[in-house]
Amino acid sequence: MMNDLNAGLMQDFRLTIPTLLEHAATNHCNTEVVARLQDGSIFRYTYADLADRSRQAANALCNLGVSYGDVVGTLAWNHHWHMECFYAISGIGAVCHTVNPRLFEEQIVYIINHARDSVLIVDQDFVGLVERIVDQIPLVNKFIILGSRGCVEEPRGLGDVLYYDDLIATESTAIEWPEFDECSASGLCYTSGTTGNPKGVLYSHRSTILHSMAIAQPDNLSLSALDCVLPAAPLYHAQSWGLPYAACMVGSKFVLPGRHLDGKHLLELIRAEGVTTGCGVPTIWTMALEHAEKNGLDLGQLQRLLIGGTALPTNIRDRLREKGVSAVQIWGMTETSPLGTIGRANREVAAFTAEQKDTQLLKQGRLPWGVEMKIVLEDGSRAPRDGKSAGDIWVKGPWIARGYLHGDGGDVLDAEGFFPTGDVGHIDQYGYMKITDRSKDVIKSGGEWISSIDIEDVATNHPAISMAAVVATFHEKWDERPLLFVTLTEGKTVEKQDILDYLDGKIVKWWMPDDVIFIDAMPMTATGKIRKLNLREKYWNHLSA
Fold this sequence. Notes:
alpha/beta, Luciferase, domain 3, 23% strand
């Protein structure tokens, strides 16, 4: 007989996603969930309504034969339908596979087939896309369009199409969520696949709950029932940074912007709905900020923007601060659910001068509970926490991947159980990590490393520059040298030499770009990051041409 002192006497409460939904429905039943629909109109209901419709959708999926372990794909924007799918699919033990509609069609086909989706839930905007690829995704046997019959022209070639609103309308709002292990798979996201095929990252119920608890904490995203959260990070991008789950956990008002991520529509939602917290990549918030400045508008009740995907430009931070909004740098990746580090002050940093604190908090940040990190040098040893010894960044923790779907990439963990992030950086004596580059983007000139990120940060502070990217180009003597690509702010003009003069004294001389190239638009990945690979390949021989 087991000794009670060894076993503990706590209840076996499984950490599963339906517990979040039921908590919100019971304890925050009247809190609003708001969505902007395809036609620009505003839809609103409550957490109680979200729970009712999610239960109806779960019952409908069960009646269609979807069961534990089946994979259900979604091709959809950020709106209430998609959020319901998050809870309905994983709640019955199936896997919610969010497919990124901004990928190339061949990548979308690959992902749907690789994941073995049996059902595909499709936004009205993507029916045409599915019609074009239907013959290439033979494992999908059911297509469900979000909306009711008549919301789109009758699709061609998709068989007996179902319509979500019609499908769930006659279902019961009551359900007994099935019992299953908390380590069961709940969600599936694919890496952006800038090189090679995208890889599948398979989240569990347990990892999702623990990640939600972590991001809600005051030192992380600091979410509460008094907040109104707007996720500009797509639901198909690392599950919108876990916000659909954390919002239910704490009872925040939740505002979903749909496909309308331009500055005008975002700012309208921020001001009209009382948004206090937003999350997304810098380009999204740059558009909203520029619209506010151009039209003399304030940012309503907005208090903080959590910015990830790339380094936080200091000029964006300063312009937001002038409007009373703090910009918080976070770092993570699909494989980390995605919270890895966050740029908030600890006790030591809080005592810094204002200038020192600003510099410190532009680093990617310090580790929350649940994430361990090490920096590995070229000789395989661990780097000291000295703020200058840069190496490969490795992480581990309860919401960090231990491998990829179907074993792609082989055994990725090292002997200590750490996962390779592909980023290069260092950690200082205060515990703050700074990324100096992606391992594939780092520039090695004359045997010494040049940080493209640091040059980009300085360049984007120039008043005429909207976006900047630095990549390596071949050099006969130095092996590689930096090239600076810039897009200009609307209505601004500047000469190449003016930019080089601006950089002079702000970066070390041997980091100075060998050329500045003006382009109309940056090539972007499907997740809103600059696709440097395209620039590097196209301009690799630029200096020797």
